[in-house]
Amino acid sequence: MAAHPPIDRVTLEDVRAAARLLDGVITRTPVQAFRAMSEVAGAPVVLKCENLQRAGSFKIRGAYTRLSRMSDEEKARGVVAASAGNHAQGVALAAQMLGIHAIVYMPVDASVPKLAATRGYGAEVRQVGDSVDEALGAARAEAARSGRTLIHPFDHLDVVTGQGTVALELLEQVPDVGTVVVPLGGGGLVAGIATVLAEAAPHVTVVGVQAETAAAYPASLAAGRPLSGALGATMADGIAIGTPGDVPFEVLQRLGVQVRTVSEEEMSRALLLVAERGKQIVEPSGAAGVAAVLAAEPGSLPGTIVPVLTGGNIDPLLLLRVVQHGLVAAGRYLQLRVCIDDKPGSLAALLDTIAAAGANIVQVEHTRTDTSLTVSQVLVNVQLETKGHEHCTAVVERLRAGGFAVA
């Protein structure tokens, strides 16, 4: 079988051809009205649930499109890829379906579930480096050494074309869509969606969203060329990419795609909201679009807003930490340090006051050895379940009114 003819720039018709290729391979993921978020955004909000896609993310769309268009000779030599997890699983599953041997490089701290799933789809996994960029360097070296084809996670026209099929579904499922908000790492998904909408629905606004500690696109777009940015710590490993891809960057720049950034706190609050009110489990990068909508001025995003939940492959341990972080950010969890007299009844009085304020006590620790204390004082660390920021404030005020020194 001959390779698919190369394309110079992705078009709507290219994406429609990819949709036909993917028919029966991928899941047509559902959309879900999100009333709890609509009230905050001041407009209808509908979630596009790519977290329910095969292999847990949108990545299978681009991976299968890319692999299926390789020549028979290329398929026989095998492929190599690099990823923090979602592209790894997409490539591994696509390669398994097409009978191609795959080697996937993943960072040394890649999540255990993503490693297990990638191996479960039949790929050979090699762990190297602390980031996707380092893993990608190792994958490029392997491709040069072995003759395998490098399946880039975002910087290839076929990958962008496959990812664009998300937008074709969206237009059918949410015909009144006005804004699509998409997590942005290297840019393949945003570029594919923007390409389709620019031709099929040019009135629709596309917003790409990066983690503010790992955001290479804002500076790159300002400079007019892809620049390498510093990768700070972020829970959103799926969009922590140091350098934009040439192919997607050209699309975002040409089409004037907006790019916004969100904080770790905003992503954790978004993940919690999606889990608690939307009943969807997503990874932090998958919640970045929701975080951007929550951070936006109500009414500033036109029409029906569709955040794309890009992936649901989250390590349960990370989920636990993120949910706890989200509870704190939402005022649902409060930790206090209270200095009390070291005498019988003082601790009971403190706990009674907290109970009277309607907070639920999760944990209590007290210490007598802090250097800030006198010999007649005890420092109490207390963790509470609360009902929101106003309740947190009320609890603290109640304690201070009762004569307690709250830090």
From TrEMBL:
Keywords: Lyase, Pyridoxal phosphate. The keyword Nucleotide-binding does not apply. It is an enzyme of class 4 (lyase). The keyword Lyase applies. Gene3D superfamilies: 3.40.50.1100. It holds the Pfam family PALP. Its cofactor is pyridoxal 5'-phosphate. Its EC number is 4.3.1.19. Residues 335-407 form the ACT domain. InterPro entries: ACT-like_dom_sf, ACT_dom, ACT_ThrD-II-like, Ser/Thr_Dehydratase, Thr_deHydtase_catblc, TrpB-like_PALP, TrpB-like_PALP_sf. One of its GO terms (molecular function) is threonine deaminase activity. Belongs to the serine/threonine dehydratase family. This is threonine ammonia-lyase. It comes from Isoptericola peretonis. The gene is ilvA.
